[in-house]
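Many introductory courses stop at the sequence. We go one step further.
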Amino acid sequence: MSSNVKRLGTFEGVFTPTILTILGVIMYLRLGWVVGNAGFGGALMIILLAKVVTVSTGLSIASIATNTRVGAGGSYALISRSLGLEIGSAIGIPLYLSQALGGALYISGFTEGWLAIFPQHIPLLVSTTVLLILLVVSIVGAKFAMKAQFIIMAVIIASLVSFFAGEGGNEATIRLWGEFDKAPFWVVFAIFFPAVTGIEAGAAMSGDLKDSRKSLPTGILAAIGISLIVYIVVAYWLNHAATSEELMANYTVMADVSRWKPVVIAGILGATLSSALGAVLGAPRTLMALGQDKVLPFSKIISRKNRNGEPITATFITTFAILISLVFGDLDTIAPLLTMFFLITYGTINLAVAIEKGIGIPSFRPAFTVPIIIPIIGGLWSFAIMFLINPVFATIAILLIIVFYIFQVKRGLRTPWGDVRGGAFLAISEWAAKTAAQMPKHAKTWKPNMMILVENPKNWVHLIEFINDLIFPSGTLRVFSLKISEHGILKGLDSLRNRLFKNSKHARETEIHEPTADELEKQIEDLMAPLKKNGIFASGTVIESNNMLEGISIVTQVMKGMYFPPNIYFLTMSSDRSKDERLEHMISIGIREALGICIFSLHPKNSLGVESTINVWLRRTSPNKDLAILLAIQLHRNWNGLIRFVTVEDDEENRDKSLILFEKLSEKARFPANTEVEVIIGEFKPSLINAPQADINLFGMSSELDCNTMHEFVELIGTSCMFLKDSGEESMLV
């Protein structure tokens, strides 16, 4: 936007459009009808209930505006900068529609006032002519339009003087409560509510202000306060000046009871014209801001400006939208729709401030602070009013917002600024974690939370799919890798090897580039990407250590002390027997930290087969059956496969005992209906050779089961295997 446009101060840029929009069509043409239906007491209640929303929203706008620089887009900018671009755009679209409908509302009001003078004129022709005039003025520029509104303000002041100077006097007493002959309370409220929505006229000019932090709160709050007094006094005087029947039958009663009727008619025309101008200026700026943030189709065209910095394309689109509204709607039809859209916007603004204050993030430190109860009341009351007015339409409106939001999320919008959502969810998770930490641990809450040591992420690309099947959908994964420092033993051996084979062909062929810590972190992040895409909580880290086992021990202890600690240590068994000693040390670390142990051996040829059948080898007195069965159930769910329990007995009598035991176990543990049981008669190791075929075999780890025995099992059975040891926290029976 060119520099000559950004010159608007508080009075002309915020206070004037706000106060003129509030003291507009509803005050002149519908406040008398409201008083006639509701009585002065009822009208006062409606005014105050409506002002609860706008006062709290005005205070919330002041709070946000004094915390951050607000660009173009007014309330849309406030919401999107606080709650994120997706929510901001989901609210911004109905906000724009409400501003366009507001333009139609105010032009309809102008037309009613004009027809009171020239009843022979064609209403649609009058409305269309006014719209075209406003289009020309808005294209000329906001500065010119704001100056023109000073004249209108003088006319409105003169009309109010004429109104209060009128004799009236038809009512000697105050009617505290009306009969609501024309409409029930909340319908009357809905028709009145657009009277207090003028704060959008000022907020929408945020991108044209010299200092939005100062001008928005000062101008909006001043306009709200002054207009509240004016509305109460006007309502009281209308009650005093005319009968209920006159108030309900005559929309231009303010002019009829005034001292100088032409002055009030001029006020009606001026106020409605000014309000319409505010809508024609404000709505395109909201639409332009939506275009600038690329949340709409043809965003580049929509966000186009002319040489004066005016949103030229958005202005023409808004003019067309207003014209459509004028053709198909009237004042009483448009007002309730306008109310619903504005209530959604105001409720969301209050919600944003309540969240920012509630989570206590340091970045939210506005110069203008409000107690948290104010935005809470404003937000809750806004949404409550929607349902009190029309629960069906309120539900439809909220569902549309949700649909807009989901659509924007799926588009993958990238927010170029920070927002409060991360802090809000972090605060919720911290509260939940603290609360969960105080609860006693129970096997009922168990889920597979794994930790994995990954030395070379590139070797885990296919194995990570198997990890996904073990923990999806509710499990978590913590991946760590170790970077041995320059003084570490392994580093020393590598350095010695390189020196011995320096400049040799063998050195060039065998030397492997070791990734840096940053490269390792990137590789781990890429490795976890498929799991995150599936909605699994996965995190990774790279730790520098002087020694591999020392680093593993430290990482394991640290992870056990975290919120949401791991409960399964997933290890892999290499065909290289020289690594068995390290594996046994890692098993000892896991047992010391009370973790469930899962040792996986991937068959070099058969891999995981067709990922269907799972053999679970159990003894009747197995102490490690819980983890094996729980992980088998996880694989069954994600493979849509078959669980087969396999046990070995030495005679038929024990075979029958095993079958009875598994039948009872199946009932208590709620095994899948297609679960099979296979009892083999004979010795254990020969049974491995003749075992029923499966894609993976699961074994419980007894204290006698060392690495050599596990290697032997893998060779005999000829499939991928997992060896599992319970931590004591698992139970298949809960």
